[in-house]
């Protein structure tokens, strides 16, 4: 296999690159613009591997992307490049529209031109795997689950831009017969996640003795999946998924934000006394809610489990513990980010 991974220097993309190289028998071209969210250090373990290569490129740059397809001759694309943070999309949606919508369009066009140049056998093997989110389905009440046929109802600018990209991918299959598969995954956590997201933020703030900012009441629910389980699901879908279909990815791990933050504080406290705070109630602070904050996400992953035989490896407690330990043991990864790239006041006021 020869696979172009877009956004391979990001949190999930780097896990996908590491997995593909570990599996062997596969050449990977990581195509990434290197935005604030990228970190090539996440790829240190594979950067010297002869099967791995990196190119700094913007998916919006159609002519350059087309050239890369011609020179690399991929058998598949796994498309992860995106602006990914909901709060940033609320503060400034333009970049989300550009990368997530126009960038996906530009990538699809390059893939289509390249695909039309392949012979019949090569065409039958080619895949375009589009990595998307459960946020395209909107929000749930206290019951029910997102299924593959749940109607789209995106609420944030980020979710709307991802929903748009899903529709483009679907249309390029319907109209041009590009062999696409769409994946909609729940919230990911694990090593190398940028500290703006809930779980790394709560771990890092606990380690630094800073307040833990909880939006609104903290009762909003997210459905958590370890990033390595997501990478494995994408690999499974690439290998066995049915062209033109979509797959929901998740592991039935619903938690309220307050419960997640409290558990993280407890796990850090088990290892070190946390300076300034003797308990979670002192450490946490309820702050203004996110505008339009979705109440609950929860994925029904049964199609993926039943038809492609995928099962997650991590249960949430084990995954969370190993993630907390990873941030404790890899301060040299996140400290420079917190000091330079993300000193933002969302890291808390403590
Ligand atoms: P991330 O923000 O950590 O990484 C995104 C990567 O894309 C970065 O390396 C960045 O440099 C790159 N990128 C951004 N714009 C680009 C452009 N114009 N051209 C080329 N590269 C560009 O994101 P993530 O959390 O790893 O998410 C990856 C994908 O998975 C996204 O498509 C996201 O929507 C989706 N997703 C994320 C989650 C989650 O919980 N993080 C859940 C479901 C789906
Ligand atoms: O400081 C915080 N306090 C807080 O209460 C932060 C950063 C978040 N939250 C809440 C908001 C959400 O309900 O925690 C929840 C998770 O927030 P994020 O980590 O920002 O994730 P979310 O908005 O759910 O989106 C994530 O999952 C779906 C990813 O960022 C998306 O890329 C993915 O598509």
TrEMBL record:
Its EC number is 4.2.1.46. Residues 4-321 form the NAD(P)-binding domain. Keywords: Lyase, NAD. Belongs to the NAD(P)-dependent epimerase/dehydratase family. dTDP-glucose dehydratase subfamily. This is dTDP-glucose 4,6-dehydratase. The keyword Transmembrane helix does not apply. It is an enzyme of class 4 (lyase). It comes from Thalassospira povalilytica. InterPro entries: dTDP_Gluc_deHydtase, NAD(P)-bd_dom, NAD(P)-bd_dom_sf. NCBIfam families: dTDP_gluc_dehyt. CDD domains: dTDP_GD_SDR_e (cd05246). Its cofactor is NAD(+). SUPFAM superfamilies: NAD(P)-binding Rossmann-fold domains.
């Amino acid at each position: 296999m020869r696979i172009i991974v877009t956004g391979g220097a990001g949190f999930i993309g780097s896990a996908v690159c590491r997995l593909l190289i570990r599996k062997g028998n596969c050449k990977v071209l990581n195509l990434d613009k290197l935005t604030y969210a990228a970190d090539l250090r996440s790829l240190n373990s594979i950067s010297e591997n002869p099967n791995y290569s990196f190119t700094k490129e913007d998916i919006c740059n159609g002519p350059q992307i087309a050239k890369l397809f011609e020179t690399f001759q991929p058998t598949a694309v796994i498309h992860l490049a995106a602006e990914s943070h909901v709060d940033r999309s609320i503060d400034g949606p333009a970049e989300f529209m550009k990368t997530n919508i126009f960038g996906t369009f530009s990538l699809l066009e390059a893939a289509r031109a390249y695909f039309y140049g392949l012979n019949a056998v090569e065409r039958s093997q080619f895949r375009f795997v589009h990595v998307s989110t459960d946020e395209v389905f909107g929000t749930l009440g206290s019951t029910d689950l997102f299924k593959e046929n749940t109607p789209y109802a995106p609420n944030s600018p980020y979710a709307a831009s991802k929903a748009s990209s899903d529709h483009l991918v679907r249309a390029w299959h319907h109209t041009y017969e590009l062999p696409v598969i769409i994946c909609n995954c729940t919230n990911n956590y694990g090593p190398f996640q940028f500290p703006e997201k809930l779980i790394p933020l709560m771990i890092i703030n606990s380690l630094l003795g800073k307040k833990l900012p909880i939006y609104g009441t903290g009762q909003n629910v997210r459905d958590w999946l370890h990033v390595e389980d997501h990478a494995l699901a994408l690999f499974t879908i690439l290998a066995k998924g049915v062209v033109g279909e979509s797959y929901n990815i998740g592991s039935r791990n619903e938690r309220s934000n307050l419960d997640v933050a409290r558990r993280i504080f407890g796990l850090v406290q088990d290892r070190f006394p946390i300076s300034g705070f003797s308990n979670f109630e002192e450490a946490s602070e309820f702050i203004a809610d996110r505008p339009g904050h979705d109440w609950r996400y929860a994925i029904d992953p049964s199609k993926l489990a039943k038809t492609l035989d995928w099962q997650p490896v991590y249960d949430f407690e084990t995954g969370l513990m190993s993630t907390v330990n990873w941030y404790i043991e890899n301060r040299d990864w996140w400290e420079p980010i917190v000091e330079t790239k993300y000193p933002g006041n969302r890291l808390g006021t403590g």
